[in-house]
Design a protein that fits this description.
This protein has 283 residues and is mostly helical. Helices cover 80% and strands 0% of the residues.
């Protein structure tokens, strides 16, 4: 059941571009501002009914500052993702979220002195090879994909430093940016209709429901399995880009995606082998 919750979270995120395509008449900044503000409204409402969801002892200046930095990275990643979606460049988002876990491995090795296992080393090498092949074949850097990926990987890395519970971290990541988001909404919504506000407000529950499902899943699901589940999202993005929105795919993108998927398959086989051996030892 917990694994199902995790899979469902990534399925929702994978299908988010379908919703965002209905918002292509709005600017990415306005979409992001509405997601931040209305998410903050929902979180404040929940807090009013359940104040014990936040441990006041954890609300130190250090933890709130780190949550602020995490929020910046999350919002930058979302801004890039929204831009990719509404400009018919879902392929760039797909590539970004395929790359992200490998950047997370790398940041863990560099900043947290985590030991890289053989599958992770192979994945890192292949990811670099994927980017090199993209640059060579398309004669350009995958700037949008790298921007989305690096900012989201940084968000995950920064969250390792936060000593707040799940709700507290999500709460401060949104509430600290709510005033700026509200100001932007008020100054850029003169021509919006009521139905437009409804569409923009809908971005908030899409994000919060997914985060809640993933948070529940993490409680009982091994991180090794979570790391495999997260590839559901970019796979849905890829399918949408190719078969629903019929986006063109460049030779560089095709080459990079093939190399990335091969690296994922290698890492997956190694992980499954380890889990099988552990289960055999237990029995």
């Amino acid at each position: 059941m917990y694994t199902f919750f995790g899979a469902l979270a990534f399925i929702i995120w994978g299908l988010v571009p379908v919703y965002f395509h209905q918002l292509e008449d709005f600017s990415p900044a306005l979409i992001l501002s509405n997601r931040i503000f209305w998410s903050a409204v929902i979180l404040v409402t929940v807090f009013c009914f359940k104040p014990n969801l936040i441990d006041k002892k954890q609300c130190t200046a250090r933890n709130i500052s780190i949550a602020f930095m995490a929020g910046i990275m999350m919002n930058l990643s979302w801004l890039g993702f929204v831009y990719a979606t509404i400009t018919n460049n879902i392929m760039a988002a797909s590539l970004a979220f395929y790359i992200t876990p490998v950047f997370v491995f790398f940041m863990g090795f560099v900043f947290f002195k985590e030991r890289l296992k053989s599958p992770q080393k192979i994945a890192l090498f292949l990811m670099v090879l994927a980017i090199v092949s993209y640059v060579y074949l398309d004669q350009q850097l995958p700037i949008l994909s790298l921007a989305i990926s690096l900012s989201f990987a940084s968000y995950i890395a920064i969250k390792k430093l936060i000593k707040l519970n799940t709700f507290g971290a999500i709460f401060f990541e949104h509430i600290l940016f709510a005033p700026i988001a509200l100001w932007y909404i008020m100054t850029h919504s003169d021509s919006l209709l009521l139905v437009d506000f409804g569409k923009l407000m809908g971005t908030a529950p899409l994000q919060l429901v997914s985060i809640l499902l993933l948070s529940i899943s993490i409680l009982k699901t091994p991180l090794s399995k979570i790391s495999l589940l997260q590839y559901i999202e970019p796979t849905f993005h890829l399918a949408l880009a190719l078969w629903v929105y019929h986006e063109p795919i460049s030779l560089g993108q095709k080459s990079a995606l093939i190399i990335v998927i091969i690296s994922i398959m290698i890492a997956s086989l190694k992980t499954r082998k380890k889990i099988t051996i552990e289960n055999a030892n237990k029995s």
